[in-house]
TrEMBL record:
The keyword Transmembrane helix applies. It comes from the Bacteria. This is EAL domain-containing protein. Keywords: Coiled coil, Membrane, Transmembrane, Transmembrane helix. The chain holds residues 477 to 725 of 737 of the full protein. It comes from Rhizobium lusitanum. The keyword Glycosyltransferase does not apply. Residues 1-249 form the EAL domain.
Length: 249
């Protein structure tokens, strides 16, 4: 179909771009990292959300090439920002490939970025399907020195068992939970308990989707060490991150 053909061409011609969203320290609100988010301005159609084209990349076998492109661009960009961590989303279709860790190693070598500055974000959906392979994949990635985060925690089928079974370096609490922190007592109690549990396991916690100062303060109060959301910065083109760093220093 036309969308798939266009996407294939977009990957080959590097029509895809990467936007970067600030990750900030919960106490100082200083930017300490960025999350890379793929963007596609489809000629003749305008911007298309990754929520629309990532699933197509998954089913058409394009996800590996797309994922590799984003990882390579993000690691290259991060070389301009020596003090920032860079987080990159990984799809189940990439993660499932036993050779994925080899791809990651080659990008680290090619770009020269320090492995510990790179965080790979994995959503929980795939873990349920295949816990044993998930464990092996995570171990291979961690052996390279990169960090592995559990993304979208609290969005659906989250199991607290994952926190014990897999060596996640960080969890990211989903916006569907954090958005209700001020209005909904149940969301607030779940957030408090989740952060307390993660902290007692020595796993640092990022709260996503923070849109107001009050939400950020509440989540910092519960023990989140890192915050992300429109209040601290929307996903932005690479040069904007440099400008922001210049102001911060
Ligand atoms: O940036 P935005 O909010 O539009 O992203 C929508 C969804 O697409 C989010 O779930 C995000 O994790 C996912 N996404 C964005 N960029 C990438 C990417 O490079 N790879 C993968 N696998 N998912 C991405
Ligand atoms: O699934 P993942 O957590 O990777 O999704 C990240 C997505 O969330 C990105 O597409 C980004 O644009 C979006 N996002 C980030 N911060 C906010 C926010 O404060 N509010 C809303 N509505 N979306 C956000
Ligand atoms: Mn993410
Ligand atoms: Na999320």
């Amino acid at each position: 179909n036309a969308l798939e053909l266009d996407l294939r061409r977009a990957i080959e011609t590097e029509e895809l771009t990467v936007a970067y969203q600030p990750l900030v320290d919960a106490s100082s609100c200083e930017m300490t990292g960025v999350e890379a988010l793929v963007r596609w301005n489809r000629p003749g159609h305008g911007p298309i959300s990754p929520e629309a084209f990532i699933p197509i990349a998954e089913t058409s076998g394009l996800i590996e090439a797309l994922g590799l492109l984003v990882l390579r661009k993000a690691c290259k960009a991060a070389q301009q920002w020596p003090d920032l961590r860079v987080a990159v989303n990984v799809s189940p279709g990439q993660f499932r490939n036993p050779a994925f860790a080899d791809y990651v190693r080659s990008v680290l070598n090619e770009t020269g970025i320090e492995a510990e500055r790179v965080t790979l974000e994995i959503t929980e959906g795939y873990i349920i399907q295949n816990p044993e392979r998930t464990r092996q994949s995570i171990e291979r990635l961690k052996a390279l020195g990169v960090k592995v985060a559990l993304d979208d925690f609290g969005s659906g089928f989250s199991s607290i068992g994952y926190l014990r079974q897999f060596g996640f370096d960080r969890i990211k609490i989903d916006r569907s939970l954090t958005m209700d922190v001020l209005e909904d007592n149940r969301a607030r109690e779940m957030l408090k308990a989740t952060v307390a549990l993660a902290r007692s396991l020595d796993i640092p916690v990022t709260a996503e989707g923070i849109e107001t100062e009050e939400q950020g303060r509440a989540l910092q109060g519960f023990g989140c060490d890192e915050l992300q959301g429109y209040f601290y910065g929307k996903p932005m083109p690479e040069p904007e991150i440099g400008k922001r760093l210049a102001v911060q220093l």
